[in-house]
Amino acid sequence: MTAPTRVLVCDDQMLVRTGLVTIIGAQPDLEVAGECGDGRTAVDLAARLRPDVVVMDVRMPVLDGIEATRLLAGAGVAEPGKVLVVTTFNLDEYVYRALRAGASGFLLKDTPPDRLLHGIRTVADGAALLDPEVTRQLVGRYAARIRPPEEQDPDGGPLTPRELEVLRLIADGLSNSEIAATLMISQETVKTFVSRMLAKLGLRDRVQAVIYAFRHGLAT
Q1: What are the phi and psi torsion angles at 163 (to 5°)?
Q2: Nearest alpha-carbon partner for 9 in 41, 30, 40, 32
Q3: Which residues of the chain have pLDDT under 70?
Q4: Sheet holding 83-87: strands in order across?
Q5: pTM higher than 0.85, yes or no?
Q6: Which of the ends of the chain has fewer CB neighbours closer than 10 A, N or C?
Q7: What is the pLDDT at residue 133?
Q8: pLDDT (tens digit, 9 = 90+) per residue, 187-200?
Q9: pLDDT tens across 30-52, in order?
Q10: Rounded (5°) CA angle 45-49-54
Q11: In which element (H, E) is residue 108 found?
């Protein structure tokens, strides 16, 4: 039998944390490795418990979720962990910063339980997760303010026209199946384009691809 995915839950609101722990713990393929209410404890527990996924709030005492994410999954971390940020809509700027800090994705706190569980499993499998309903609002709203003009590259740099098209659709929040339907190609072909695009740009996952697209003027 496959070992269950071990999840560390970090949220300073006890009611929210208890709800997350209850939902996750009820799944046969998931296991709550631990829980805490601040980012510093999350970093310490992650080092000791080695969870497969950390479900992370943003605003917390002692150390906020953004800095905790950077310590767990940011650039320079020898063995980066997988962090799924779960936040409220009015924290969209913080979510953008959390993604840049190394988070594998985000969901809203009012997301249905089945989508939360899908998100945990998706991140655990090594894929990035962007909530398609709010991707453009969360990232796009702040892109113009934080994208340095000298870094804009409307031609897409080394990408082919089709790879550039795939990148723009990813930035719109589309999944591989939705991109395949839009471009009328197979999902396997989409996966090939995504892999090539990430390799050419030196990006780790779809989250970084979305950030790249907005920072370089390739999405609006």
Answers
A1: -65, -40
A2: 32
A3: 1, 89-96, 127-157, 219-220
A4: 30-36, 5-10, 53-56, 83-87, 105-108, 129-130
A5: no
A6: N
A7: 52
A8: 889 989 988 998 88
A9: 999 999 999 999 999 999 999 99
A10: 65
A11: strand 105-108
Q: Residue 2's closest CA among 36, 34, 26, 28?
A: 28
What is the sign of the dihedral through the CA atoms of 74, 79, 82 and 83? negative
Q: Identify the pLDDT of residue 101.
A: 83
Q: Is 203 helix (H, G, I), strand (E, B) or coil?
A: coil
| Whole-angstrom distance, CA of residue 58 vs CA of residue 68 | 9
Cα separation, 115 vs 187, in Å, equals 21
Helix (H) or strand (E) holding 180, with range, is helix 176-183
Which residues are CB-neighbours of 201 under 8 A, at least 6 positions away? 157, 158, 159, 209, 212
Distance CA 127, CA 206 (A): 8
Q: Which amino acid is at 175?
A: S
The pLDDT of residue 146 is 44
pLDDT reported for residue 155: 44
Cα gap 48→99, rounded to integer Å: 24
Contact by Cβ (8 Å): 98, 65? yes
